Amino acid sequence: MAQHKKKNWRLLPGQPLTELDKRILAFQERGKLVPSRHLIRSAEEIEGIRRSGVVNTGVLDEVERRIHAGMNTLEIDEICMEYCRSHGATPACLGYEGFPKSVCTSINEVVCHGIPKEEDVLEEGDIINVDFTTILDGYYADASRMFVIGKTTPEKEQLVKVAKECLEIGAEAAKPWGFVGDIGFAIERHAKKYHYGVVRDLCGHGVGLKFHEEPDVPHFGKKGHGMLLVPGMVFTIEPMINMGSWKVFIDEGDPYGWEVITDDELPSAQWEHTFLMTEHGVEILSY
User: How far apart are the first and last CA of the chain?
Assistant: First the structure.
């Protein structure tokens, strides 16, 4: 049975049929969901996203160098803002759909979209995800890292480790002419070995010319489902792995309506890279 009827790939008027056209059209005729042309980046666009990715990685390197117990998350926001702007870039989060800061700082049971605050002071044993997106010359790159503050519990250490493994396993499953569902299938299978929940309400995404583009990249799924992965596509993989249930809720005490928290208020961990799909697999553009 065909999964999709939408025909994204269309021939260019007056242009000869290329080998890329033939290959993508063959998948489309079989009922597979294929990308539209604008999702296949040109060499110039890839280079622009790569330059943005260098700055974005530099932001997280600077946070890694300076993060410590006793600092508050508003200080992390200031570090990110200063580094980004000193390199001629803009923080994509600032003002995005009302988000008030330049970076997301998500501590312990906060899954993602944590808002930096002066009152959120990092304590020994905390785990925190710092998620930053850079705009440089109109090109976007997006990544996040987990940081363990001092010494934490073995349970939290394992969660952070397994979440990173999920990202790496998902990246390994992302193959040219494979499918988005292959990524989620591999991630979910690994997380289930530890009885962890894989968040279903949020996902990875296309990125590069906009903050969020197609395809959606769920971190659970079935092999052979979802959008076809074609060389030239750029997207994030960013599994959110919960120590308990996969279910989450929006904090009612957040006046901006952004902070996502685990339903059972057990800790969560997330790692995110921006990837370029090549003929041989994925290349990391920001980490």
Answer: 38
